[in-house]
Design a protein that fits this description.
By secondary structure, the chain is an alpha+beta fold. It has one helix and seven strands. The two termini are 35 Å apart.
Length: 117
């Protein structure tokens, strides 16, 4: 696949052709976490996930629609989306189940001396 790019350098427009070969790539996935808004100051919120506290930017949301006690999805310091309390608690419960399963796998690996996953 060939892409044409252009750059401006020293007031000259340079054109450059770059060829990319198709590659097998692993799928990357980002994870957001549900967090409860504990306080709001301007475009920033203090949010909690269990005992942990995070500062989050609310710049991507309509602040007028947010209140203390609401749940949002946090990713890299940004609140991405408001979610219901039910959805937040169900997701946190699933995270707890993943953690318990991971601990079980760790114990099995220690007992057998073999990597399971």
């Amino acid at each position: 696949m060939t892409y044409i790019t252009s750059n401006i350098f020293a007031n000259r427009k340079l054109k450059k052709s770059i060829t990319f070969e198709p590659q097998k790539r692993k799928a990357n996935m980002c994870l957001s976490i549900p967090a409860r808004i504990e306080s709001i100051e301007g475009e920033m919120a203090s949010c909690s996930v269990g005992e942990a506290r995070y500062n989050a930017s609310l710049a991507m949301l309509d602040i007028a629609e947010l209140a203390v006690g609401d749940y949002v999805l946090l990713h890299t310091g940004f609140a991405l989306q408001k979610i219901s309390e039910e959805e937040a608690l169900e997701t946190l419960k699933l995270f707890d189940e993943f953690e318990a399963f991971n601990e079980q796998l760790d114990k099995e690996e220690q007992q057998t001396g073999k990597r399971i996953v």
